[in-house]
């Protein structure tokens, strides 16, 4: 709520869960030698998110208490799952027409404010600045948590939750249609400019109609 500057179209959603993964790390054995050993790690996921009436996207991400301003595997897992879940539910509810393309990541992110936090022991970072999480398992576990929790929200049957989910889905579909319309307009303008600047006889014209 502090990060968001626009009016909300849904309540703040809080999704949490956890998963495990295996990792090979050097461990001190009884002879005082460092030997590679496979250990099981637990990764906790805690995400708060809400859509607003605006068009900007704000995502803040953290690993334990460390901010990761350049994202990483936890953010990519979040975004991938978001896009996939919306496409599945929008198709199932027939909010996307058969002839329409799937929505893309930017459609789902439009107007979204989110805080993505994961907690795990000995996270792996890319580079020295610790701005990007590199632990590959975070992508899978965050994806799994969001897939389950977001789908439950979008397919809720309770009146209030269902009404909010409907508004969010309609916002995402509207973003997708606006993007497609803008691209078609741009293509038409380019085609018109190309025809005007070509050396074709004047009687030949672009016969395509939308």
Task: Explain the overall architecture.
With 210 residues, this protein is α+β, with helices and mostly antiparallel strands. The protein has 4 helices and 7 strands; from the N terminus they run ββββααβββαα. It has helices spanning 73-92, 105-109, 137-154, 159-197; strands spanning 13-28, 34-51, 58-63, 66-67, 112-119, 125-126, 132-133. A 5-stranded mixed β-sheet has the order 1-2-5-3-4, with helices on one face. The protein has a two-stranded antiparallel sheet with strand order 6-7. The protein is globular, with a radius of gyration of 23 Å. The model has no long low-confidence stretch (mean pLDDT 91).
Distance between the termini: 42 Å
The major beta sheet can be summarized as: 5 strands, mixed
**SS summary, helix count:** 4
Ranges where pLDDT stays below 50 over 5 or more residues in a row are: none
Structural Rg: 23 Å
Number of strands: 7
Principal-axis shape = globular
Give the strand line-up of the largest sheet: 1-2-5-3-4
Structural class: alpha+beta
User: In sequence order, what are the helices and strands, one letter per element?
Assistant: EEEEHHEEEHH
Mean pLDDT: 91
Q: Tell me the fraction of residues in β-strands, as a range.
A: 25-35%
What portion of residues is helical? 25-40%
Brief description of this entry?
The chain is built from four helices and seven strands, in the order ββββααβββαα.
Fill in the keyword field for this structure.
single chain, 210 residues, alpha+beta, 5-stranded mixed beta sheet, 7 strands
């Amino acid at each position: 709520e502090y990060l968001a500057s626009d009016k909300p179209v849904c309540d703040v959603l809080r999704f949490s869960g956890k998963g495990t993964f295996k990792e090979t790390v050097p461990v001190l054995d009884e002879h005082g030698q460092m030997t590679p050993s496979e250990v099981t790690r637990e990764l906790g996921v805690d995400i708060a998110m809400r859509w607003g009436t605006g068009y900007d996207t704000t995502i803040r991400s953290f690993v334990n208490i460390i901010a990761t301003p350049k994202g990483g595997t936890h953010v990519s897992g979040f975004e991938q799952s978001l896009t996939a879940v919306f496409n599945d539910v929008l198709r199932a509810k027939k909010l996307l027409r058969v002839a329409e393309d799937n929505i893309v990541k930017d459609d789902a992110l439009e107007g979204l404010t989110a805080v993505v936090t994961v907690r795990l022991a000995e996270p792996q970072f890319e580079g020295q600045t610790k701005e990007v999480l590199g632990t590959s398992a975070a992508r899978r576990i965050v994806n799994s948590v969001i897939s389950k929790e977001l789908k439950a929200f979008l397919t809720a049957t309770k009146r209030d939750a269902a009404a909010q989910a409907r508004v969010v889905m309609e916002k995402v579909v509207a973003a997708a249609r606006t993007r497609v319309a803008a691209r078609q307009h741009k293509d038409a303008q380019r085609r018109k400019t190309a025809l005007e600047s070509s050396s074709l006889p004047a009687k030949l014209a672009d016969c395509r109609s939308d």
